[in-house]
């Protein structure tokens, strides 16, 4: 399917300036992801590290965090244009954003909040996805977030909401396997139940990240090691579908290079992929 980061891309990593040197030294790296909002005037001023990766043929995917596709208001055209500019400047095969809202009535909440799983909430998100897709030069993938709470009066469960959203928009699915684990743990469910009901044939690529428990809730932190349970879910996912490309997310509190390499190798082993570290 057009835009997918297929299995030939293996295991990637989120590109961050703090670890740009580490990323540049990964010999088997085929793709990275960059937070779109961290790029300013991408057509003129790409970071040197990203330019070097592009020169090596590494695919770079812009990942938006501020668009607010799940809000009741129409998406900001300027934010959509920025995503499109990032994709064009990087020669990206696709862009990604979240199934979330981040502002209401002009107030920024500073977090990726879950979308109410109502028919009205679904309709609003479908409209915003369509508005966004109309301006993008490449396909769009949607990432369900880790939710610390669910809104009341839901009319659809998560699997039905996501499946209908993808069906009505034609978007791809950016599956964060760590979010699957976090949501199942916080809701008291089985993460495999969700995997078995999602349209896995639409998975564009997969996030893998760490987290930690605080006050009885599991938080998707991106600053802690990837737990063994999430690595196990990677293997379960790859047993259920054509193994997709996978990507390690780390945002702050970066461990020593040997620990980062060990996490990448653990993901590659679970997915039956070649290591990118050698």
Automatic annotation (TrEMBL):
Protein name, entry field: DUF692 domain-containing protein
Gene3D superfamilies named in the record: Divalent-metal-dependent TIM barrel enzymes
SUPFAM superfamilies linked to this entry: Xylose isomerase-like
Stored InterPro entries: MbnB/TglH/ChrH, Xyl_isomerase-like_sf
Coiled coil segments of this chain: none
Lineage, highest ranks first: Bacteria, Bacillati, Actinomycetota, Actinomycetes, Micromonosporales
Lineage top rank: taxon: Bacteria
